[in-house]
Amino acid sequence: MITLNAELRDVKVNPKMIRREGKIPAVYYGNGKESTAISVDAPVFKKAYDEAGESTIISLKTPEGVLDALIHDVALDSVIGNPIHIDFYIVSKDQKLQVDVPIEFIGTAPVEKMGGIVMKVMHELRIEALPAKLPSHITVDLTKLVDMDSSITVADLDLGEGVRALVPLTETVAGVTEAKEEEEVVAAPIDLSAIEVEKKGKKEEGGEAGGDAEKVSPTTEKKGKGD
Question: Which end of the chain, N or C, is surrounded by fewer C-beta atoms within 10 Å?
Fold first, then answer.
């Protein structure tokens, strides 16, 4: 089991000062424990978090003793993404927990060679189990997708002894869809005869307008005044 050492933290001290010392402000609560402010070593926590995630029990060494805990919530810096605060939830060994466990896809689906596209529908699964039975992740073997009608449901998963899925067993975890070819848009043929008729119509209209203009030209009007 992963172990983290926790030190009591003075809540009056600015959290930025704690982070500058290479530690992360944190708090633990649950299972009858009052909310207690602590701090943990930043590099050690990052390694533990990478291994345990939020679904594996860790051993939290505190001034009041060793406690079984889940990494319940991690606040991250909005710019660089480093953990800036942690919530640990204390659990009881005989109390079942409900957690979301990440799904890890492995293998290559044979259906991909037939032109099929694998759809990874589910990326985490909500389960219930005793702390000691909680898996860190659930493995899904994509080699089971052998044809276009293949699919993997929750019922097909190996959750391990004492682990129960909290979603319908018929829920799809991964499936297959067929690649659709883009339809080629064919441009409509151009009616050259219609364009020719339209051009002729414009010329005829222009000719009539020109004739009228000659009848009322300034030259004609001047000659009339001289007479």
Answer: C
Alpha carbon 168 to chain centroid, angstroms = 22
**Strand duo 138-141 + 97-106: pairing:** parallel
Residue 32 is predicted with a pLDDT of: 86
| Tokens linked to 13 | 């001290």
What structural domains does the chain harbor?
A: 3-92 (2.40.240.10), 99-178 (2.170.120.20)
State residue 181's pLDDT score.
Answer: 61
User: Is the pLDDT confidence value at 176 over 80?
Assistant: yes
Is residue 83 within 8 A of residue 49, CB to CB? The reply is yes
Q: Cα–Cα distance between 90 and 27 in angstroms, integer?
A: 10
Distance CA 43, CA 63 (A): 21
Tokens of 193: 């005869």
CA torsion 93-31-70-5 (nearest 10°) is: -100
Rounded mean pLDDT, 105-128: 94
Q: Are 102 and 137 in contact (CB under 8 A)?
A: yes
Q: Are 139 and 159 in contact (CB under 8 A)?
A: no
Please give the mean pLDDT across all residues of the chain: 84
Give residue 101's pLDDT: 93
